[in-house]
Amino acid sequence: MKILPLFITHQGCPFQCLYCNQKAITKSSGFNFEKAEQLLADFCKKNLETTKEVAFFGGTFTSLPLSLQKEYFALVQPYLPKLNGIRISTRPDFIDESILANLRQNKVTVIELGIQSFSDDVLTASKRGYNSQTSQTSCQLIKENGFKLGIQLMPGLPGFLPSTWEKTLEITANLQPSYVRLYPTVVLANTELENLYKNGAYKPLSLSEAITICAEASEKFSQNNIQIIKIGLHSDIDEVIAGPYHPALGEIVKGRILCQELIRNYKKNHTLFLNPRYISLLTGFNHKNAKFLKKTLNITKLPITLCS
User: Fold this and answer.
1) Domain ranges (residues) in the chain
2) In CATH, which superfamily holds the domain spanning 2-247?
3) DSSP character at residue 64
4) How far apart are CA 187 and CA 171, in angstroms?
5) Are 95 and 138 in contact (CB under 8 A)?
6) In this predicted model, what pLDDT tens digit does every residue of 75-119 receive, in sequence order?
7) DSSP per residue, 245-277
8) Whole-structure pTM over 0.85, yes or no?
């Protein structure tokens, strides 16, 4: 699957969330229709035989005036025969039957909700402007109307506790979305969260905590047949003030999961068989995973044999 993201930075958002700086994340300050059309043409031309979708990300799509939504859909319309669908991101408090009918009519197939947490305490502390029940109702409506559902979660928001996160994981698993994105909360420049952090009113997760939290969430979702398509922000963000940011966080989490699996299956004097494609995950950045395994298992050499 190839996805072309078109960023509608902050458009449709009823207010700026206390952690959000989309301009820092997307490197975009506005939407250029001419540039977007060229990107679409090139994308379809280069991926003729590939399953592909176009996505409107970075704003609250369903809060946009219908006239502007129509312009965005008109941009994509000539390329629909070459695409497998359209996906949009939005807030859970901007979903209802009429909104979904409009999206269906315009060939949207996937709706991604920036839910962030299913804990009312976290949502209140983070000033999200909706509650857990609103999110759950929206998720159910989306699925009942035949759309694929994506959920975005942010461990480490104000009010975050192990108990609030466990509740969020449980509700997410029960809702059975098609996929989840995990974005451990980082403090970005020019946000309200930056002010809270600098005033000592907010403490972000450490990188180690974020890795453990994401690894545990990944295993839970995997057990429930829920795909995780992204962990952590992308690799070229330059306005991070604090928090568990790492350009390869997703790979680090995958490495942690692999290590845990090897530890669970390790038997003394037995050989572990590993597919060669997992070697980089096994060794880890600066060989940290290999060192961790040796220390945990109290061995000097990993009993690994490569197999296809």
Assistant:
1) 2-247, 265-306
2) Aldolase class I (3.20.20.70)
3) S
4) 26
5) yes
6) 999 999 999 999 999 999 999 999 999 999 999 999 999 999 999
7) --TTHHHHHHHHHHHHHHHHH--TT-PEEE-GG
8) yes
